[in-house]
Design brief:
403 residues; 13 strands
């Protein structure tokens, strides 16, 4: 996850007291944010109430960030209700433990569970964090199908000439997507000196060079390209710049054309921009949880909408299966998807955002949250994995019993 731009705190406070009429014209999420304006301006170090307010309203405060709109479909994909799943764990207890704002289970095209918490609801938009990485990956597949990217084995510098002479000159598009570049990177969310906490503040050393490109092209190589997996949000953001160069379009526009409208999204989304006007492709799509679930259904359908496949034949199977060893038994990493050896896979964002997809069971689980334990919170993360397994078992039990 990339830290968001700094907030002009004084101006925000002025906005909060600008007048009674202005105050009541704001939606409740924005009012909530103004009541709990963060005193520490780095999102990674906000407290729980500040995150509760901000995660649902990042695109409602123009002083917090700039963004582009992704328009909804004129023909939303239906989400018909299905019968409740009878043998799930205690949902109230699970959502409380997760500090969940939304939990949706779609099975065989039917919505079999839809619950909300933290005073959030179906009409709200919650920030994606690194769930956006899997959207970005799918746009790479679309760019290959459209002929904008010739090959997964093309070098990064073919599309971003400013990377020539850097460690990324030897890195392919495939290696960038699998996070096997071999370039040094520190993704420690609790370390204010880590790359993930620092690179947003970097000032470009040349006019016209994106700040991210300027930062990444200075990093040294630590391993041969393709030989080591290392999680790097900076590299997903570089994928976004590569996509924009290749397609000649803003990512939000390409997302709207290739996924958002074809997949039948019901609400508009927004995509937050970095300080040089580029969508933060490793983070920061704001969308309704139902539309995150629809994205899962779109992927479950093979990235086919309206009879048209968005990505090349076979590409999605590669993207959602193990391409890199992450050192965890039974798990791996594909093209910006976390994979399981049973054939399921997931998009994941810090603080509890997730889309879990199990093709064998025609299952999608979409969830948003604000984990009390922080960005990664291993205990709460493991509890979510246990919940996924419980849902799979409940569906297997139904199948054996013939429902």
């Amino acid at each position: 996850m990339k830290p968001l731009p700094k907030i002009a705190l004084g101006t925000l406070l002025a906005l909060a007291v600008a007048g009674t009429v202005g105050w009541f014209s704001l939606d409740k999420e924005t009012r909530g944010l103004l009541k709990t304006v963060p005193t520490n301006r780095d999102l990674l170090f906000w407290n729980v109430p500040q995150r509760d307010a901000a995660f649902r309203a990042l695109d409602r405060i123009s002083l917090l960030a700039k963004w582009r709109v992704v328009e909804a479909s004129s023909t939303p994909r239906p989400l018909p209700a299905g019968a409740p799943i009878k043998t799930l764990p205690d949902i109230d207890a699970y959502m409380a433990d997760q500090r969940s704002s939304a939990l949706l289970i779609v099975h065989d095209g039917k919505l079999r569970l839809e619950r909300y918490g933290l005073d959030f609801g179906a009409d709200g938009r919650w920030t994606s964090f690194s769930v956006a990485k899997s959207f970005t990956s799918t746009l790479v597949g679309a760019a290959i199908a459209d002929g904008h990217i010739r090959s997964m084995d093309d070098k990064v510098s073919t599309y971003i000439p400013q990377m020539k002479g850097s460690a990324y000159d030897d890195v392919s598009v495939r290696q960038l997507l699998t996070m096997t570049s071999g370039v040094r990177w520190n993704e420690n969310y609790s370390d204010p000196n880590s790359d993930v906490a620092q690179f947003n503040n970097h000032k470009p050393d040349e006019p016209g060079v994106d700040a991210l490109v300027s930062y990444l092209r200075k990093l040294p190589r630590e391993a041969p390209a393709g030989e080591r997996w290392l999680y790097s949000t900076g590299e997903t953001n570089l994928v976004g710049i590569l996509l924009s160069h290749a397609t000649g379009k803003p990512l939000s526009q390409y997302l709207e054309e290739k996924i958002w409208k074809p997949a039948g999204m019901e609400q508009q989304a927004t995509w937050i921009l970095n300080k040089t006007g580029q969508e933060i492709s490793g983070c920061c799509i704001q969308a309704a949880t139902r539309d995150y679930a629809r994205f899962g259904m779109f992927i479950l359908d093979g990235a086919v909408a309206g009879g048209q496949r968005t990505v090349p034949d076979g590409w999605l199977q590669q993207a959602t299966s193990k391409r890199a060893d992450i050192g965890q038994p039974g798990r791996g990493y594909g093209y910006q998807w976390w994979t399981y050896d049973d054939g399921s896979f997931a998009a994941r964002g810090i603080f509890g955002q997730g889309i879990f997809i199990d093709p064998a069971r025609k299952l999608v689980i979409a969830s948003n949250a604000n984990w009390a334990g922080g960005a990664s919170d291993p205990k709460t993360s493991q509890a979510r994995e246990v919940f996924y397994k419980a849902v799979q078992k409940a569906l297997d039990d139904e199948a054996r019993q013939g429902k």
